[in-house]
Amino acid sequence: MPNKKPLISIVDDDESVREGTMDLVRSMGFVAKAFPCPEEFLKSGCVSKTACLIADMRMPGMNGLELHNHLATTKNRVPTILITAFPDDRDRGRALQAGVTCYLAKPYDDEELLGCVRLAVDSRDAG
């Protein structure tokens, strides 16, 4: 059976962040799809195929932590990396307590993000 490349889904309301993150993830050999909001991601049919979710912490409507928590209550538990332009220790603590793989401040280091993606994909494969 061929080894399928993991799908990394990116949810961010900032188009430049979505595109840049998608390019970075693809450059490392992953398949990437981007969505402008959590609702689009949830309707996409990609949730069950997603090996890792990268989501913005602050978006209109559902935020990244709420999206992670929603997925955690379904059969589609997805390892999640939250990214934010407004890092906050309280938000970080809540996110990590909720089981988020990584919580990164924008602008994040490319290698740091890719390390988190690998950690998330490995945890999904192990689970």
Question: What would your notes on this structure say?
Answer:
The protein has a single domain, classed as Rossmann fold, CATH 3.40.50.2300. It has a five-stranded parallel beta sheet with strand order 2-1-3-4-5, with helices on both faces. Helix content is 43%, strand content 20%. 34% of the residues are buried. It is α/β, with parallel strands linked by helices.
Name a few traits of the molecule.
5 strands, single chain, alpha/beta, 127 residues, globular, five-stranded parallel β-sheet, Rossmann fold
The class by helix and strand makeup works out as alpha/beta
Form type: globular
Strand residue percentage: 15-25%
CATH topology: Rossmann fold
Q: Examine the secondary-structure arrangement and name the CATH architecture.
A: 3-Layer(aba) Sandwich
Question: What is the number of domains?
Answer: 1
Overall number of strands: 5
**Mean pLDDT across every amino acid position:** 93
Written as H for each helix and E for each strand, in order along the chain, the element string is EHEHEHEHEH
Number of helices: 5
Q: Which superfamily, in CATH terms, is the homologous superfamily? A: Response regulator
The level-1 CATH class: Alpha Beta
Radius of gyration, CA atoms, in whole angstroms = 13 Å
Q: Distance N terminus to C terminus?
A: 20 Å
Strand order of the largest sheet: 2-1-3-4-5
Given as residue ranges, the uncertain stretches (5+ residues, pLDDT < 50) are none
Q: How helix-rich are the residues, as a percent range?
A: 40-55%
Query: How would a crystallographer describe the biggest sheet?
Result: 5 strands, parallel
